Amino acid sequence: MTAGPSAGSARGGPPDFALLMPLWGRDLPERVELALVSATREQELAPTLLILTVDGPLPPALEALVARVEAGEFGPARVLRHPAHRGVAAALQDGLLASPYELVARADADDLCRPDRFARQIPVAAGLAPAAPGQVPAPLDLVGGAMREFSDRIPAGTGPLRSRPLAHDEIVEYLRTHSPFHHPTVVLRRSTALAVGGYRHLPLLEDYYLWERMVLGGARTANLAEVLVDYRVDEQLFVRRGGWTLFSSDLVLQRRMLLDRVIGPGQLLRNLGMRLVYRFAPGWARRLAYRRFVESRG
Questions:
Q1: Does 251 lie in the same domain as 225?
Q2: Angle (deg, nearest 10), helices 244-259 and 206-216
Q3: How many CB atoms sit inside 10 A of residue 263's CB?
Q4: What b/e sequence results for 47-73 when a residue is b if at least 16 CB atoms lie within 10 Å of its CB, and e otherwise?
Q5: How crowded is the C-beta side of 126, counted as CA atoms within 13 Å?
Q6: Residue 130 and which of 119, 175, 238, 283 are 20 to 30 A apart at CA?
Q7: What contacts 69, CB < 8 A, 6 or more positions away?
Q8: Quick one: 217 and 243 in the same domain?
């Protein structure tokens, strides 16, 4: 389901692309500014357009930062607003629909993009460079990469590595048990994502749900081995990854994957059993389990 090259690639250079970043009232202004700078002004290949989706009302400090975005401080930008908080899936879907470009890069409002992120990713997505040494370049619909964790205690670039399978066939196999992409690292092809419905509401699993539908729709995928993003991990991250809301999302997605024949009944039971233990374990145990059973398979 790949499209042809954009005007930029037809001219011999990297194609135009949009950067999609959601924002809501609980984001911290100082972290948002750092994320914006890292994803725009510090990039070797800067986005053609920044799409900032504002999900609900903002406090004055964030409104002041949004005004700077609208003034062009971080490059050409478009700000989309919704008066009520609807959730990240709705915000991202709005941005995806609003993008004038086929390639859309995702970034979160508290992570840090490496300066060479888009210079590495965009040519690969456009089919101008191979995803891995020895491969033949080909347009891709979904391209991610590795991340390193950081926090207020752990400096960026020094924390634990988060990686995922690199080749398409490995990604398809990994999809059966875990999300095969780190959402803050992906570049996706707009038409391919929208053809399967784009982002749909499923708390904290809206990305995994989209990857499943894109792969079923024929998307060509890859992950780069390089670290593209420094991923902020606060003390409550693994606490938020538990509870009934998340397990309910697990139930919905696993049922969908069964109906789509991505998994069979046996894999469904194994997946749900693993997630039941994971979602209701203490936060510290959930952190250890993620390192042992998820990242070790990446």
A1: no
A2: 10
A3: 19
A4: bbbbbbbbbbebeeebeebbeebeeee
A5: 26
A6: 175
A7: 36, 50, 52, 77, 79
A8: no
